[in-house]
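Extended Data, panel c. Modelled sequence:
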Amino acid sequence: MKFSKILLTIPMLLLSFIGKGQEMLGISNSNFAGNMGMALNPSLFIGSPYIQEFNFISADFFIDNDYVYLKKRTSLFAKSLRGESIPEENILDYYDGKKKRAFGNVFLRGPSMIQNRERFSWGFHTALRSNLSAINVPTHLAKFMKEGFDYIPQHDEIYLAEPMRAAGMFWGELGGTFGKKLIDRRDKGYLAAAVTLKLIAGFDAVYANFENFDYEVPSSDTLIVNNVNAEYGHALYGGDPAFKKPFKIRGYGAGLDLGITYYKGRVHGANDCNETAEKYKKYKYRLGVSLIDIGMVHFGKEASVFKFDDASTVWPGIDTLKFNSITEQDIAISNQFLNDPGKSRVKNKFNIFLPTAFSIQFDYAIVPKVYLNASIIQAVPLSKYAIVRASQAAVTARYETRKFEVAVPFVMYEYKTPHLGLAFRYRFFVIGTDRLGSFTGLFDTTGFDLFFGFKANLCEFAKKGGKKPFCPVN
């Protein structure tokens, strides 16, 4: 019986939201990123080499943590393609007494378009997104989650889990982006700004906030909770553990992205749609600043909030518990801690905040077609009810032309764990990863990352003679 069958079931439910994506650092800073760079800084597409770009479908899948890992030579990708399970002896953990974190998300961008005009630029996007975060989880609690109550070395010890929280959400977006160049002078450079407004339909959500959790496990069939102060909530279909009706709208909200980009020494002709443009640097350097995913979703349908203040219990038979639905689980927990099946339910609505972040992007043109980028993405959670974004810094070298591009990002995940990535763009197709080691099996692996996209770009037709100029992206 796993630890996830008790009150801690709620954070573990978040695992069902994991879709796996992050910042697509191998493509998002490219001058040819188009729609795939909008989520990092909405102003990057203004003054780009594209007049129009259509995104048919693009996706970004990512998951990572600092506790569980697959030992090297596990061949995660190959086994996944063959539908094979990973042997338990290959799944290890960092049992080091430190607080643990886990992040995951999926970003599936559907039909989208950007229109880049000289004075005013605009675009729209559709997207399905799923995000998860769990932070400040102590090692002893993570160990019980992984091994279950029968992990004997942790029996007969009193453990205290200090403030920790987790949140997850699955939602759909319809967004509009509006941008404008503010300055375009040789002596003052080129300055562009943009805003993305997002209408959000929330499908599923779950969160858990623990102020303290004082517990012990004397044996594999008994849990003793000496004191707990916690709150959890969810907006889910409560009648079946399989989470039926995943696209039922249970909440509504709004979001906002803000971005500004400055170009020094921008060469206008370098963005023209002809062969000569490939011979010039597009600019000396480019500096972008953005605030992304400001907003929240209010859940008021099939939503419940449960609270426990200075609660305690002795729970025998914990190893044989089985819950057939979310509702059944809520009733059992309330009954066990408060001797009342409905007393713990305190509200029927709650808010979940988006994974807000602040980002800076610096791009330097070394020679024509060769660029070096440095980016920082810093999480800025707006509430204890927020999904927390993973913070990271990256340096990316890339070779780009209108037709072809290759990029190699070096990422410091959470500013401490190094990862190497690789990305390619050829005409209408993009594919890449910020976790190349996950595919090679040469290293211990704590996560996985993959992104791809299919898109089409329209170049400007020649005004003289009506002939189409060099335009290999079409």
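The two ends are 56 Å apart (CA to CA). This feature is highlighted in the accompanying rendering.
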